[in-house]
């Protein structure tokens, strides 16, 4: 055998090893791609929901692969085998529904994607948008005068105001004999309390 034959046999064997390693690593799989709609996304109340694309990442199969979106909102996973996969979007402050993606080997990698929260089927290319804003903190209730009056502190202050201002007015209009009886009752009860303490 001459050197040309040996070199061609060597090149063929190296090429077959390379294709085998590519197939084993899964680079010959399918692609799941789409975009995050972030520039004109309508949030709760019809407001535009702004968020930084640099903080957003897409997780495939609970961390098997992770992709960060480009500034225009697009993302892609390559080398994905046929089967069922789960896409999750992690964006601080916003909730995205997880997406179930079925990659069909019979139809040459055609995708069928469904939102797990609403069961809505997504068409290709995938466009993912937040369902709602996440509330990490409980909203503080606004000041309410009725709420203050119904609280124990409000009831106590109300009773003290009644005792300080209205009771003297009521006692002014009382009959002098009733007033005398009331004072006697108060003094007798006070003396009973003092005698109980001294004994």
TrEMBL record:
Its main location: membrane. The chain crosses the membrane at residues 153-171. GO terms for molecular function: carbohydrate binding. Residues 1-24 form the signal peptide. It is found in: Membrane. Keywords: Membrane, Signal, Transmembrane, Transmembrane helix. One of its GO terms (cellular component) is EMC complex. It is a single-pass membrane protein. Residues 53-156 form the ER membrane protein complex subunit 7 beta-sandwich domain. It comes from the Eukaryota. Pfam families: EMC7_beta-sandw. Belongs to the EMC7 family. This is ER membrane protein complex subunit 7 beta-sandwich domain-containing protein. The lineage of its organism: Eukaryota, Viridiplantae, Streptophyta, Embryophyta, Tracheophyta.
């Amino acid at each position: 055998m001459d050197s040309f034959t040996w070199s061609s046999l060597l090149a063929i064997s190296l090429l077959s090893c390379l294709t085998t390693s590519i197939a084993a690593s899964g680079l010959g799989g399918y692609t799941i791609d789409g975009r995050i709609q972030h520039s004109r996304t309508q949030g709760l109340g019809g407001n535009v929901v702004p968020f930084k694309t640099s903080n957003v990442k897409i997780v495939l199969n609970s961390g098997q692969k992770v992709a960060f979106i480009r500034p225009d909102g697009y993302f892609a996973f390559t080398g994905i085998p046929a089967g069922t996969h789960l896409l999750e979007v992690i964006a601080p402050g916003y909730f995205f529904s997880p997406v179930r993606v079925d990659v069909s080997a019979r139809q040459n990698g055609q995708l069928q994607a469904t939102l797990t929260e609403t069961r809505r089927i997504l068409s290709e290319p995938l466009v993912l948008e937040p369902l709602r804003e996440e509330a990490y903190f409980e909203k503080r209730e606004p000041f309410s005068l009725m709420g203050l009056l119904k609280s124990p502190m409000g009831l106590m202050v109300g009773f003290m105001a009644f005792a300080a201002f209205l009771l003297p007015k009521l006692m002014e209009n009382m009959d002098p004999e009733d007033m005398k009886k009331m004072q006697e009752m108060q003094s007798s009860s006070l003396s009973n309390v003092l005698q109980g303490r001294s004994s």
